[in-house]
Amino acid sequence: MTRHFMTIEELSNAELAAIYTLATSPFDDETLKGQGVALIFERPSLRTRASSSSAVHELGGYATFFNDEEIGIDSRESAEDVGRTIAEMYAIAALRVRDHEVLERMRRATKERLSLINLLSNEAHPTEAVADVLKIAEEFSKGDVAGLAGLEVAYVGDATNVTRSLAVALLRLGVNVTVGAPSAYQLSPGGAEDPFAVKGLGSLRLCDRADEAVRGADVVYTDAWVSMGFEEESARRRHDLASFQVNKKLMGLAKDRAIVMHCLPAHRGDEVTDEVLDGEQSRVWGQVFHRRTAMIGVLRWIKGEL
């Protein structure tokens, strides 16, 4: 059966456990021997491209990169035809797309001939979530993701696709997640990656104040206020989210052992200060390291190792 990694939500607990295990266990550098992975990027990314291509290489395969100008999904040709073309030459395609529905359309068009990995869509960022879970487990439970139950994670600022995938992953593990954001930037039910639909052990709490969200947290997480596609809203977003900056004063409300996380790129001085991002509590570079680790786990799972 063809395996896909589209959202955290659509995978079972056993499947997610397998990915976490495969990400951190010894691997065979011939898992992808002689096989290519198509990397299709409608949106640019330093960390996603670097982690994906290096993971493919370490597993013995080769990666071919296609940018938006080369492919032009639904402008030069339909998402379905792009998928059908890639399926004739590759067994795996990993994509950063603007619209999550593109992934679903490709899956239907290729009739399970092509494994799809979501490297980011407007609704989900599941590879980032896997990397972040691995980093949090490294910090708090000696790498055992099953040992994270009861942890308190606060996400503050603009609740994005990153927030959705991370919340689903953490709630499934029994972690309590608080999202602090203005109402216009807060999570809402529905979509392909829906934290409100999780039947997990952790609790999801929403609030409209950063201090309320962070008080007593083990992990404080934030993301850019002005994400790709929202550049025209920069001034309004900076105004609306100004009180949600992660700075030294805000971190003083979290637990003494609390760590700071950010999926990067960071807009220093907006959502986070230099003092915090470069400080002792920051774990952002460990997150970057685990982006590669996570991708290795996903690729090994796609290939059926567990």
SSE layout and pairing:
Blueprint: H1 13-24, E1 36-41, H2 46-58, E2 62-67, H3 68-71, H4 79-87, E3 92-96, H5 100-110, E4 115-120, H6 126-140, E5 152-156, H7 161-172, E6 176-180, E7 204-207, H8 210-214, E8 219-222, H9 234-240, H10 248-251, E9 259-262, H11 274-277, H12 284-302
Parallel strand pairs: 1-2, 1-3, 3-4, 5-6, 5-8, 6-7, 8-9
Helix content: 25-40%
State the fourth-level CATH superfamily of the largest domain: Aspartate/ornithine carbamoyltransferase
CATH class category name of the largest domain: Alpha Beta
CATH architecture of the largest domain: 3-Layer(aba) Sandwich
User: How many discrete structural domains?
Assistant: 2
User: Whole-number average pLDDT?
Assistant: 97
Task: Kindly report how far apart the N and C termini lie.
Answer: 13 Å
* Rg from alpha-carbon coordinates: 19 Å
Share of β-strand residues: 5-15%
CATH T-level topology of the largest domain: Rossmann fold
Outline the biggest β-sheet.
5 strands, parallel
What's the total number of strands? Answer: 9
**Please, how many helices?**
12
Structural class: alpha/beta
**Helix and strand run:** HEHEHHEHEHEHEEHEHHEHH
Pick out the low-confidence regions: none
Strand order of the largest sheet: 7-6-5-8-9
From the spread of the alpha carbons, the general shape counts as globular
Can you summarize this structure?
By secondary structure, the chain is an alpha/beta fold. The protein has 12 helices and 9 strands.
Description:
With 306 residues, the chain is of the alpha/beta class. It has two domains: 13-125 and 288-302, 3-Layer(aba) Sandwich (Rossmann fold), CATH 3.40.50; 140-283, Aspartate/ornithine carbamoyltransferase (Rossmann fold, 3-Layer(aba) Sandwich), CATH 3.40.50. The chain is 38% helix and 15% strand. It is built from twelve helices and nine strands. Strands 7-6-5-8-9 form a five-stranded parallel sheet. Strands 2-1-3-4 form a four-stranded parallel sheet, with helices on both faces. α4 (79-87) packs across α5 (100-110), α6 (126-140) packs across α7 and α6 (126-140) packs across α12 (284-302). The longest helix has 19 residues, at 284-302. The chain is globular and about 55 Å long. The model has no long low-confidence stretch (mean pLDDT 97).
